[in-house]
Amino acid sequence: MENVEKEPLWTAKTKKLLTNPLGMENPITVQVLGICSALAVTVKMKPAIVMAISVTVVVALSNLIIALMRKSIPGRIRIIVQLVVIATLVIIVDQFLKAFAFDVSKQLSVFVGLIITNCIIMGRLEAFAMANKPWPSFLDGIGNGAGYGLILIIVSFFREFLGSGSIMGYPVMEKLGVYKFGYEDNGMMILPPMALITLGLIIWVQRARNKSLIENK
Amino acid sequence: MNFLLKRMKKIEPLFEKGGRFEKLHSVYDGFATFLFVPDKVTYRGSHIRDHMDMKRTMTVVIIALIPALLFGSYNIGLQHTRAFGINDWTLMNMFWFGFLKLLPLIIVSYVVGLGIEFIAAQIRGHEINEGYLVTGMLIPLIMPIDVPLWMLAVSVAFSVIIGKEIFGGTGMNILNPALTARAFLFFSYPGWMTGDAVWIEGLTKGGGLDGFSGATPLALAKLDGFSQMPSAMEMFIGTIPGSVGETSTVAILIGAFILLVTGVGSWRIMLSMTLGALGMGLLLNATGGNEYTQIPAYYHLIMGGFAFGAVFMATDPVTAAQTNTGKYIYGALTGIMVVIIRVFNPAYPEGTMLAILLMNVFAPLIDHFVVNANINRRLKRVKTA
Asked: Could you point out which of A15, A113, A163, B106 has its C-alpha 20 to 30 Å from the C-alpha of A86?
């Protein structure tokens, strides 16, 4: 080991790895990655939360593993190696869900398998894990997974609340009794276009509050 | 009028920069220019200013909508008497009944839409645009009469904010705002936009005559082809169930005449859209397939919202193609799409709304190719000369 000087586990820099992806460097609203699954699994909150956790686990662990191996991976086949790592982790997550949360796993259907192709994971491996030590890479994975999950949960909250009249499966609108006054659930919230529009509104709010995110014309 | 003008001039400084109501300048400006022709003149360069500014254009469209509005009111009453077996209403009874039922829709549409426009104009420091005056009148005319008012309000808000303000307000929108509102309602609350009860006032609450069906001709055509449909004459005059302003082809033709004489509506789009639908209808007549394809081609022009869409929606100067050649292509493709969606899509009986929205998206692309073709042609001329 040439580089023996030890860094402390918690510094301002490592903390930033966790918090930045939640806001200023959010993988969905700022980098616009992982949109496909954000549209597909956000009809209800429960699958969205499970999806968020799954992606966080996969991105954190694959970041960790790739960071550990980064010096021994030949540059020309690194994408294949990364994919093998991701695919292995995704299959483990998939089997885990099938064993312990079968209903949710059925609702998520192919989208668990499609975590393999989620741009956020490949993006983080290429951009961060290949050039950083394991501990920061792991934190970066957690941070980006959480940033992804945060947006997923916000979108799914609005879609489930307005589209199905419930929150986490609890029929809020029915308990409030608004159906008696002629209220109806908005069928368009369940369709993918409204997920895109909701996402757009979140980006709008974020940029309106954070002028530095707006590109120069 | 002179008195009013003096009053307006007197309070003007209050709304100028530094005045007490500086923030409300666009509100003042909106009212002042609504009441009087603006006295702005250009100082530099040579400009020709037409007297047809946006307000006059919009006013003409509103006038052109009046026949459809009046007939729509009468038809609401007429359909109501048919559904509930009322025999002793005079024409005026029916008209007033319908007009009073339609009025809340118009009020909600204007209050919500203009409210959002005013707020948006204050926030951005824009002028208040007149664009919504027409949209606000179009929206009630393309709604089923029994639509709940809060749903109307939600869809108007959606169309003004997401369909228009996000893109930069009047003149910048990609999609026709009135149709955006209708499409939102259509996909959000399908129970209130399809079926055979919403088109007739009061029928959703039940109590109609036994065996009476308020199905539109389009729904009937979908159901079992030609046999159950009302006669062509009835559909032409408009005494059929349907959205408020779309049923009467006659009333819409009067509006079309007004638009064409004043030059506000594009005859290219109206003509090519009609020919497109007719051509597609004739093609289907020739090829056959199912019963629906055997409906006479001209039926497509008089049933559903085709006429209304062709005259008032597809010709929207903002969302249609801008070049003359582009307008022919845009119109023809819209007409063809209307018939294709009507006949072949099992889920949607009406295709006009979706066809126009689809072609709105393609209009800039069509213009792009028309402009480029023109540039290439002229380049070639230069090179050969």
From this structure: A15
